[in-house]
Specification:
single chain, 4 helices
Amino acid sequence: MYSDDDLRAGLRQQLSVALRDRDRIAVAALREAIAALDNAEAIPTDADMPARSGEYVAGAAVGLGAAEAERRILDAEAQGAIVRAEIEARLAAATTYEKHGRSARGGELRLGAEVLLAALDAINGER
């Protein structure tokens, strides 16, 4: 399903190291980046069709996984852009926290951004 140069695979490898090292800041940053990639691959639902329980449609798919849809496949450039957006969001949030006197939380967010930036650099260096 995913190509060999998938950024997610590299992030997951780094996540397992962070979990083993019990680095909660790195774990949080890496999990959020992986979740952002997963969310970007999701197919948007049809907003025109409201979900109504108890109604049946003739010929509709029934059973476990019958209504599953293929996910989008993101290329390496799109994956990198999503992770860079996560880094920028963390840095912006860190600035906001620091402006409001929450420098400890701001520092944690900055460390998480550094973890993601280092992960991008390490993964791109392997390609």
